[in-house]
Specification:
This protein has about 220 residues and is mainly alpha-helical. The chain folds into two domains: about 1-100, Class I glutamine amidotransferase (GATase) domain (Rossmann fold); about 105-220, Homeodomain-like (Arc Repressor Mutant, subunit A, Orthogonal Bundle). The chain has eleven helices and five strands. The protein has helices spanning about 10-15, 30-40, 60-75, 80-90, 115-125, 135-140, 145-155, 160-175, 180-190, 195-205, 210-215; strands at about 5, 25, 45, 50-55, 55-60. A three-stranded mixed beta sheet has the order 1-5-4, with helices on both faces. β4 (about 50-55) and β5 (about 55-60) form a beta hairpin. It is globular. GO terms for molecular function: DNA-binding transcription factor activity; sequence-specific DNA binding. This is Transcriptional regulator, AraC family. InterPro entries: Class_I_gatase-like, DJ-1/PfpI, Homeodomain-like_sf, HTH_AraC, INH-QAR.
Length: about 220
């Protein structure tokens, strides 16, 4: 059976051809409204890396097309080959169709304030570290009080909230290793305890961390052969 696979704005071409009617699909987050208007009979899904509905495959952007291609390689040739292709293409973290389009490592960075970026860079380089507000303020070259205000104004999130989001993102990467217990993942990601980890995970991801392993959403290929 033939299939139609597109990336980013390619979904609009499928819409114009009437190939999306009654089907689930996605596109880049900036084109969602345009796709909904072009294909009113389609089920347009937001914030998805890629969507597969029968012979129609749509992905959010250029790089998400790589995720879609790896998904198809795994289906037709097996996970081992898909892993080798991913490593050959230097794609060590592979996303599934249900993963968000915007990486948590890039979220809250769409601003131009250098002090906030300096603090965010410090957290991103070592999210597991127990950063104090004073230490981050030192990295940003502002007072702790001023950094708190700047974060809320420019990043749209608190300093603590930003660090928690990156710790959850790091934990998500670690959970792919089924040899690591949830307790060990919590420790490596910088959480004070497994209980604290579960509480923060529930806030940002919903459910329990262990559920990620049962849904098959974790997609991380090791760098070894």
């Amino acid at each position: 059976m033939s299939a139609n696979g597109v990336v980013r704005a390619g979904a609009l071409l499928l819409a114009a051809a009437g190939l999306l009617d009654g089907r689930r699909c996605t596109t880049h987050h900036s084109l969602i409204a345009a796709l909904q208007a072009a294909a009113p009979a389609a089920k347009v899904e937001e914030n998805r890396v890629f969507v597969e509905d029968g012979p129609v495959l749509t992905s959010a952007g250029i790089t998400t097309g790589i995720d879609l291609a790896l998904h198809l390689i795994e289906r037709h040739a097996g996970a081992e080959l898909a892993g080798r292709v991913a490593r050959r293409q230097v794609v060590y973290q592979r996303r599934g169709g249900n993963d968000p389009q915007i990486s948590p490592w890039l979220a809250h960075r769409n601003h131009l304030h250098p002090a906030v970026h300096r603090a965010q860079d410090a957290i991103a380089q070592d999210p597991a570290r127990s950063w104090s507000l004073e230490e981050l303020a030192g990295c940003a070259h502002v007072s702790a009080r001023h950094l708190t205000r700047l974060f809320a104004e420019h990043a749209g999130i608190s300093v603590v909230g930003y660090q928690q989001r990156l710790r959850v993102a790091r934990a998500r990467e670690l959970l792919v290793d089924r040899q690591l217990s949830v307790e060990h993942v919590a420790e490596l990601a910088g959480f004070a305890s497994a209980r604290d980890f579960r509480r923060v995970w529930q806030r940002y991801e919903g459910g329990a961390p262990s559920a990620l392993r049962t849904t098959g959403k974790e997609r991380l290929f090791a760098t070894g052969n």
